[in-house]
Amino acid sequence: MAAWARAVRGLLLDVSGVLYDSGGDGGGVPIAGSAEAVRRIKTSGLKLRFCTNETQTTREKFVKKLRGMGFDISVSEVTAPAPAACRMLKERSLRPHLLVHNDLVPEFAEVDKANPNCVVIGDAAENFTYANLNEAFRVLIGMEKPVLISLGKGRYYKETDGLKLDVGAYMKALEYACDVQAEVVGKPAKTFFESALAEMGVPAQEAIMIGDDIVNDVGGAQRCGMRALQVRTGKYRPCDENHPQVKPDAYVNNLAEAVDVILQQL
Amino acid sequence: MAAWARAVRGLLLDVSGVLYDSGGDGGGVPIAGSAEAVRRIKTSGLKLRFCTNETQTTREKFVKKLRGMGFDISVSEVTAPAPAACRMLKERSLRPHLLVHNDLVPEFAEVDKANPNCVVIGDAAENFTYANLNEAFRVLIGMEKPVLISLGKGRYYKETDGLKLDVGAYMKALEYACDVQAEVVGKPAKTFFESALAEMGVPAQEAIMIGDDIVNDVGGAQRCGMRALQVRTGKYRPCDENHPQVKPDAYVNNLAEAVDVILQQL
């Protein structure tokens, strides 16, 4: 019946807006049926990878929070932007000025940050102050060829107390001020999805991405040759269904419904 | 000798970076020779208009500060974005949510701000907090067709304690987050320069704009048919002289030098 659900060996799940709705206080509320859906995926024999642009905390704390909400998840199952950025910084001998959330800083513990020659921007939330933006701007504008690395390019996300601007908006501010194009680590970067697929050992054609972000989850995964579903939870808005560029392989009301359909086809 | 200086009847002067360098505390330091240059223009018989994108204060306070630094300037000689925005808001029955500097708010005293149906963004400086950006974003994203009005689109400006992000950077953040294009009031908008010319009663071909911003002063004025000079003061940077799109009619070291040359041709 559902052609999009056939011949699947692995699932990539976005986390915020799919498993849970995050709260402004760092907490959050699980989305009904999602914890059970994760358990059903794991017992089904499907490969599973959590593919998140979360940059407000270390993977360790993030996983701990999710386990506290009842999710069966471990650090080794999570693909996140900060470790990908650390690999890139080391490969290119870059020393970052960090404009990130305080709780993300430990992910960069091993990275040389003296005398910075690039800026790394994440979802810094309350750290997006006027003073901090100006400081990052001055580091960039002082370089002959500014290097800006962004941990994602999301426009906004939903917390329990409302929509919030995501890192992409602040990335655009710095791009414009410095006349530079950011290098995006995290979704929708192709290399990021490809890492997640490699970590699962599943080719793109046999994987489905499930997310609430029409551009960064759905569009990004489809450009890598995956199928992709948009859930009608999290930051989903009805007008997403008229998006001029991106059309998901299917819409589902939530993760539980997606898993129902996929498991029926196994 | 200087062909660009011939047949001039009026001058438009940018203020910050041409007359003075502004300070983070709302004060500033006059640029050497500029106060004397303004006096010489006024006694020469040339028409004069101050054409500023200043949105951190009312015109009254702005003029008072400049007079305190020794400049011969009055409110009626200043073309600024906030009054232009107020005219636009009234014409279109728009009720703004304001994301502006506290000191600019009195310029909008006569405007109905209840139940907002647009956002007006100015150079809010310390008011560009994470919370205030999110609030403006939510007003916009909640509209069927978001209306964002920006009092300028400058990338950055120079204060005595360093470069600061200008309104344009924050405008870009909201544009990206809401997938909307801002309507710019102030330089480099054509209507803004045209108002200043009309207020002087001088046609574009007989006017010269003098500014430190290669795009918003020089490029904007040239698109209106004016000649335009870039001063090597304020936010001027040597790399401006290799700008891919904009080429001033001449460079001058400062306002005093420009006035020297222009007055020699009268």
From TrEMBL, chains A, B:
It is found in: Cytoplasm; Nucleus. Transmembrane segments: none annotated. It catalyses: diphosphate + H2O = 2 phosphate + H(+). GO terms for cellular component: cytosol; nucleus. Its cofactor is Mg(2+). Phosphatase that hydrolyzes imidodiphosphate, 3-phosphohistidine and 6-phospholysine. Has broad substrate specificity and can also hydrolyze inorganic diphosphate, but with lower efficiency. This is Phospholysine phosphohistidine inorganic pyrophosphate phosphatase. It comes from Aegotheles bennettii.
